[in-house]
UniProtKB/TrEMBL annotation:
Highest classification ranks of the organism: Bacteria, Bacillati, Actinomycetota, Actinomycetes, Streptosporangiales
Domain of life: Bacteria
Organism field: Actinomadura rayongensis
Residue stretches of biased makeup (Low complexity): 9-18
Region annotation (Disordered) ranges: 1-25
UniProt protein name: Uncharacterized protein
Amino acid sequence: MSNVKPRHAATATPSATTTPPPNDRVVRLTNLAQATRTAYPAISCKVVDTATGLPPLLHASFRDRSEEVGCDMDRGGWRFVWGFDPRNAIGLAEDVDRAVQALARILGAEADA
């Protein structure tokens, strides 16, 4: 008797109910959106997953101003960035409070807190 498996042995396929792994960018941007809404309820936040194949963004707006925040990985870890520009970093994604303050400041919402 041989322990060798047939060349085309059946393998388990994931069921239709299997949840896909979370997208790290979406998780981090969602955390930022929730923290922003908590600290500044007047700021509207929505994570937008573009259909064009670009990474998701957090769209934040306050009154007549709006900004987009992305999330990129570099050697130092995950960072929040303005838009899609990795050179225009807000700060480390672990420092959500700092990003919330920066977003509120740029939108002019600090005085409304």
